[in-house]
Predict the structure.
Amino acid sequence: MPKAFSEAERDRIRSKLIAAGKRLINKVAIRLLVVDDIAREAGISKGSFYSFYPSREEFILSVFESWETEYRSLLIHEVTKGEGTARERIERFFLGTFEILEREPGLARLGMKEIQSIIERLPPQRIAAHQAADIRMLEGTFGGWVTEGFLAPDLIAAFRGLVPALFSIAIHKEDFPPGSYSPAVKLIAEALALRITTGAGGAVARRRGGTRRALQESTREKEKTT
């Protein structure tokens, strides 16, 4: 029978399991990830592992959620709190997406077949909860960017699909001709940032123009009544 742990021990072990999962995924890739190795690195038995995660797939999703939380926060902070113009911040956001895969090679080796296999082995409600949390976070983030003038409202849907698209490009890094990958991704980031901030600038100008027109009309109405 697996050992009973206190809540403090469980929190500590869970952190060790996630850290071990990241190291092993980067080292051997997901398809070779073995529960015995994860448990051994965290200093617990295989039986105890299943008292934390009901399945290997549940654990893998938790590892990816941890990566997602960590890097998403850094990328979002670069846009909302970073230095430079809106275009420079957005460009760094996209370049940062490519850099993540340089830091985490396990992510770069992840294929769609493996992703689909993990999804198929997880309960539908677990996938639904993960997707709902993603949607809530992205809607809040993009809504804030629209308010701040970083993103035009009509680009939100496209922006939502850009990060997965960039990951797809990065996953195929080895398919690029020698010496072309880094210049290509730099150009992609520059072009996207220019398009997005140009659209956002237009949206801000339209909002400001609408506000000015409303004030002008209000002033004219007041003049008529006096």
